[in-house]
Amino acid sequence: MSRMRESISEVYQYRDLLFMLAWRDIKARYKQSVMGFFWAILMPLLIVGAGLLVRFAFSMNSGHSMNFADVASIALKSLPWAFFVSAIKFGTNSMVANPNLVTKIYFPREVFPLAAVLASLFDATIASTVVILLLVLAKVGVSIYLLWLPVLLLLTVLLTAALAMFLSCANLFFRDVKYLVDVFLTFGILFTPVFYEARMVGKWAPLLLINPIGALLEAMNDVVVHHQAPSYSWLAYAACWAVLGLLTSWWIFDRAEASFAENI
Amino acid sequence: MTEIALEFDSVWKKFKKGEVFDSLRDLIPALAKSLFSRNNKGELQKREFWALQDISFQVRRGEAFGIIGANGAGKSTILKLLSKILRPNRGRITTHGRLSALIEVGAGFHPDLTGRENVYLNGAILGMKRQEISRKFDEIVEFAGIGDFIDTPVKRYSSGMYARLGFAVAAHVDPEVLLVDEVLSVGDMQFQEKCLERMLRIAREGTTVIFVSHNLQAVQMLCGRTLLLRAGRITALGPPRDVIAQYVQTIQGGGRASVSGGPIGEVRLENESGAIADVFAPGDPALLKFTVEVPAPIEEYVLAFIVQRLSDGQPLCDYNLRLEEVGQCSKRAGRVQSALRFNVNLLRGAYGILLNLYHCPTSSFLVHRQNAGFFSVNETTSYGGIAHLNPTLEGEGRPRPATEGFGDK
Question: Is ipTM over 0.85?
């Protein structure tokens, strides 16, 4: 445990580098690009579009007409999902994309996946302005339950960071991890309650919430759109994943770090 | 504060040849083992080899310490172990103080970012704080000689500019221990001199410098002690001059057998007064004495006399001398005492002498003596170059040799 604490405090010492690398990723992404910051909202926008189509099909079949709340909840959930996807993608590649830095210069390697998560968080922040606008237009309104939102966002970031650290490490040793991740992320949206809500599958809902990201998305939907408290048991479950996952990932990362330069 | 800046205590490091894992089946047990076992020190597995074996040395605070050796001897591995990029399999490495490595300049550059952005990025990668970089920014740009190009993406830089900016950032980190790996070979002559000057200044100001280079001249100039590595083991440790001499013997020797006996033997390099010498001033006369022992009449042989610069192996001359001159009377095979007189019209540097014997009737070489001798030239007036042309400055007053004039500029 003392080794973990050492490792974490070392990353803290290198926080300037963490921000610098995140800033580099952001800058490099927007340089020489026609769309500029539109990139940041493209992905959430596409998710919302696809979600509306799916929900429209549902409503045609079930006879319930679509309402603003449905639109609002898809828009809301598209944002953390887009963040999750981009952070995991960039994070998985973060070390392999910088072989020069891994083999030539020493600094705590945790900085790579964490910077990727940070850069994606920046994109999500830009996109959130659009989503907030949509929520206002949909007349979602505010309630005391919104206070849960920061906690939920923090848990999402922690969970994403945990997974990004583990996958970046795995991808360094085995390059096919990247392709596996791509496949899982592409189809993941269908297994995660983004387009729809978990309760729509009735008694099978827990199966969708086993995925901690799904549990977090549903909790966000509850507090923002439905103005109700999140399900505490599922929230606790997701929180366990986030915290224990991050500790475990960090531990694995730290153990494997010694052999990064030889295996990349 | 301790006096020891860093210490290697019987360090061993092994590497694998070939692919690391063949299949998933090998992988899972291997990964589990490496994650859970602390004892990864064991003996060599299949396809492993020791890159470093039992390396121990200490470097004092403020010392400039050179590491030389052939390619693959383990020099860079030592630096990577020092900078914690690699970890040893056995032994202990202790370092005291902030450590910075000039291992690959510009390694952290992103091609799409401008020079300015890359200075900040690379500075952070090398462990500098933001304010620190801002403070030194102008100095860095000035040193790199980038000028107006600082706001141009570095992908548009020439490779020289790229390397110069990389070196400039790294040279301004102000560490307590500086690791340098063969970075002086970037840029043109002028920039190389500038780098060397900077390194000398850093070393003089009390920074511990670990300097890995094939540029033996620079090692000799810069370092107080030098370590010679051969195939992962320490073969010599001491004053640079002795260690470099030993290194030159091992790389040029191609075996000790030819040193005694053989067609060319008993080589000694003498100065004007007849004493064995290895340091000359430009223009000094030198006498290379040796014996020639050939199986055929000596006038059938030609002696090739070649002088090479040791830092890069550049041949400086290649004379073919007919041996009948030395063995006037001997028309048959035999052993002749010979001497070759020449002037050391060379500038500062370390040089090696090669002697070859060529048999004309059979068109074949009897022997290549690679390390027949070596010597260095000491002087302080030239800025670079090889040939001593003995320039003199003339003007109103009496002519005087330029070698007296440049020095006190």
Answer: no
